[in-house]
Amino acid sequence: MSEEHAAHSPLAQFEIFPLHPIHVAGYDISFTNSALWMVLAVVGIIALLLPASRKNSLVPGRLQSVAEMLVEFVGNTVSEAAGKEGMKYFPIVFTLFIFVLTCNLLGMIPGSFTVTSHIIVTFALAAFIFIGVTLIAIFKHGPFKFLHFFLPEGTPILMAPLLFVIEFFSYLSRPISLSVRLAANMMAGHVTMKVIAGLIITFGMLVGVASMFPLLLFLTGFEIAIAVIQAYIFTVLTCVYLNDALHLH
């Protein structure tokens, strides 16, 4: 594949490349475009939440209203999915939600980089959640009681070994399904938009804009909705796993 063709490939937008090469003890820890957009996401979150939390006015301004709405929304999600006991982990869940949401929305900016389209990023987040809720369950209930999570009460003795193996591997698959769901949805949508945008150029500006531009606008709105929904789903599943850890359901 030629360099020109590769540059116009729908998958070219997901390429990670170093912006500032850094090598330490033979390891490549370069500052990449992916790292840049994660930093921008964090800066954007701080720029929104820090001023909003400083004023805390009785009559909230725009920033404070947005921040309060996000806090209340995530708080209700945690409370409904994990119960009152899960609220002690609200700061972690809120951080995950706002980070994933911001990364998803930043990826909608033309020429930007969608961090959450890469499985290595989403799997790192999912692995953090998986290890965290597992440790919570073990420390709260003890290792032996935690093993009962993989063997529902009333299971026939003959079926117990098979059911234990099925439940155990189903539990281990959680970080995989959680990470793949987010990355696949973000990647698929951006690829579709890139293909539609390419068709506008292929058909010519006059015909392409007339025939494809309305579709591209619709897909843009649809992708923004998907970006928000996927952040919400990621948060809800995190709360469900937290609820399982707290109550061993």
Description:
By secondary structure, this protein is mainly alpha-helical. The chain has one domain (66-247). It is built from 9 helices and 4 strands, in the order αββββαααααααα. The protein has a two-stranded antiparallel sheet with strand order 1-4. A two-stranded antiparallel sheet has the order 2-3. It is globular and about 70 Å long. The model is unreliable at 1-5 (pLDDT under 50).
Brief descriptors of the model:
249 residues, mainly alpha, two-stranded antiparallel sheet, 9 helices, 72% helix, globular, disordered N terminus
What is the secondary structure topology, with strand pairs?
Layout lengths: L2 H5 L10 E3 L2 E2 L2 E2 L2 E2 H23 L6 H21 L7 H17 L12 H23 L1 H5 L12 H13 L1 H30 L1 H43 L2
Antiparallel strand pairs: 1-4, 2-3
Helix pairs in contact: 2-3, 2-4, 3-4, 3-9, 4-9, 5-8, 5-9, 8-9
